[in-house]
Amino acid sequence: MAPDTMSLRYFLVLAQELNFTRAAARIGIAQPALSARIRRLEAELGTSLLVRNTRSVELTTAGAALVESATPALAALDRAWDAARNAGAGELGTLRIGYSLSAGAETAPALVDKLIRSNPGLEVAASPLATPEISPAVADGRLDAGITRGEQPARGARRFLLRRMRIGVQLARHHPLAAHSEIEIADAAAYPLRLPDRTANPAIHDQLSALFHNTHPTPQFRTPAVSFDLSQRDLLDNLTLAPAGEVAATTQPPALTWRPLRDAPTLTLHLVLPTLQSPLHHRIRTTAKSLAHELHWLTA
C-alpha cells in the first residue's frame, strides 16, 4: 500500500533540514508528532529512511532514493489536483459558444477574446448559427453558451442582457437621407426597407417591422435574396434602407453609412446559458458582465 502523501511531504521537509526540531517548526507541528509520522512511514515501507543519533540525522540509501523519486511524483500529483480543481471551477476545457450572425461582427469576438485573456487554460470554440437554433442547443448541452439578438430562450435555458444598441438604418452615402444626423421613422418608411427573412430570427424581424406599423403610406418591405451579403449590394441603389443596430456602422463597406432612427427603441443582445449552471457557466456570465461594463454596452 502506498504511504499517505502528507507523510511523504513531511519526510521531504525533514530530508532538507536533517533536524527534527527545525523540520517540525517549519511544518508547524510538534516534534513528537513528526517523529511518529516518520516511524509510521518507515513501517509502511518496511525499511529505515533515516540514521538518527543524538547530534544529527542522516538519510539512508533508501531515504535518499525516496527523496529522489518522491519529489517529482508529488509535484505531478499537485499538478493533477490543480487541473481537477481548475476544471471544476470552469478554468480548463473547451467552451462551445454559438452566436447569431448579427452578434458576429463585434459582440461575439469581443466576448471570446475576453474569455481567452481571462482564462489561459480555457479553449473557446465559437461558431455562427441560425438564431432559432442557439437556445435549444444551449438547453440540451450541445453548446455551453449562446449570443442571440431578440430571440426568446428555449425551455431549459436562460438569457441575460449583454448589450443594448440603438436602432438605425444602413444606407448608401449618397442617399438623400444620409445628410441627416438622425432620421425620422416616417421619413425612412417612404423608401424601400430591407428586412431579414423572418424565419432567420422572427423576434428581430417583428421588432424591426413594428417600427413602421403606424407610418403612411405603408412601407414597402424587401427580403434580400442573399441573407448575409457583406457587399450590401441591394443598398447601393441609393433608395433601399436596411434597419440595423449601431454595430453595423463598424462593419459596413465604405460606400454605406449608418444613421440612428429618432425615438426608436433599442435592440438587445443576450447571453444564453442553461438554467442549471456549472462553475464554467458562472465564469462565462461573470466575464460577460465585466466586458459589458468595460465597453459600456448597457448604457445605450
Automatic annotation (TrEMBL):
Cellular-component GO terms for this entry: protein-DNA complex
Transcription regulation keyword on record: yes
A Pfam family the protein falls into: HTH_1
Gene3D superfamilies, sorted: Periplasmic binding protein-like II, Winged helix-like DNA-binding domain superfamily/Winged helix DNA-binding domain
Signal peptide region: none
Segments forming domain HTH lysR-type: 3-60
Keyword Cell cycle listed: no
InterPro entries: LysR_HTH_N, LysR_subst-bd, WH-like_DNA-bd_sf, WH_DNA-bd_sf
Keyword annotations of the record: Activator, DNA-binding, Transcription, Transcription regulation
PROSITE patterns in the cross-refs: HTH_LYSR
One function term, GO molecular function aspect: DNA binding
Annotated family: Belongs to the LysR transcriptional regulatory family.
Name used for this protein in its record: LysR family transcriptional regulator
